[in-house]
Specification:
disordered N terminus, about 60% helix, hydrolase, signal, mainly alpha, metal-binding, globular
């Protein structure tokens, strides 16, 4: 009996073969990964579009073209922080990924996450919990590291398998794409990935006006929330402990990039929080 194959089968087989061959080469981080940077970007764009759709349907996505001046001002301020982080020569894919930030209006959720290819989502709850731009820079640096070190791609491949991700790249498997978009906020990383993201959050901030231990101050706040019996969503995916906070602080001291928080960082941050009082 003759078996018929769809054209997509051959396309998928061709892509798989190409991906396997590309895994022989190292990326800018010195790692051998099956997914190319172009695949990261393509997958990230699809996942981000689905994630946007999910939060838009809940009325929580603050659109990039929102006509309200306060929302535009909030985006401008956050993008300014991101731009400063991207000046670090430690961000391998600063040009390729672009690192577009989206704000999710949910004051009750303390969370932030990133897609492959550098789409970053920040909940208003976590923004309003922090005290200054330096702390937010620590959070953003951590999430940029997850994308830049390609932790998100690795975690998705582990959880869903290469064949599923290939089918999404082909424009198929819409149900699985919806599941990924809905679950990305709670995607879990391994200890090594978290340690590396912490490490690079310090590295990225070293050449900025911000103190480079901002992530440690952020994690202390999350720890306080947990001890108060209100475990943040962030800690369900980003495990927190004293050793981790100490490691960030120790690296910042060793790198001599601990700086006093400027008053402008505090006052400008209050303006950001005011602009997100909707």
């Amino acid at each position: 009996m003759k078996r018929l194959f769809s054209s997509n089968f051959y396309v998928a087989a061709f892509m798989a073969a190409g991906l396997m061959l590309s895994s022989c080469a190292k990326d800018k981080n010195g790692e051998r990964l099956i997914f190319s940077i172009e695949d990261d970007i393509a997958l990230g764009n699809q996942v981000a579009a689905q994630t946007d759709s999910i939060y838009r349907s809940k009325g929580q996505l603050l659109e990039l073209n929102d006509p309200r001046p306060n929302v535009q001002a909030a985006y401008a301020q956050i993008n300014k922080i991101v731009d400063k982080i991207l000046t670090s020569d430690q961000v391998s894919y600063a040009q390729e990924f672009g690192y577009e930030v989206k704000i999710i209006h949910d004051d009750n959720t303390l969370n932030a996450f990133a897609t492959p290819g550098g789409h970053i989502y920040v909940f208003t709850g976590i923004i309003k919990k922090l005290d200054n731009e330096d702390q937010l820079a620590g959070v953003l640096g951590h999430e940029i590291a997850h994308a830049d070190r390609r932790h998100t791609s690795k975690a998705l491949e582990r959880q869903y398998g290469l064949s599923v991700l290939l089918s999404i790249l082909l424009g198929e498997n819409q149900n699985q794409l919806v599941e990924i978009g809905a679950g990305l906020a709670t995607l879990k990383f391994g200890r090594d990935a978290e340690t590396e993201a912490d490490f690079y959050s310090v590295e990225y901030l070293g050449d900025t006006p911000y103190t480079c231990d901002g992530a440690a101050e952020f994690f202390k706040k999350m720890q306080d929330e947990q001890q108060a019996g209100k475990p943040p969503v962030f800690l369900s995916t980003h495990p927190n402990d004293e050793d981790r906070i100490k490691a960030i602080s120790d690296k910042a001291i060793a790198d001599k990039c601990v700086k006093p928080v400027q008053q402008s960082s505090v006052s400008d941050y209050q303006t950001l929080k005011n602009n997100l009082t909707l």
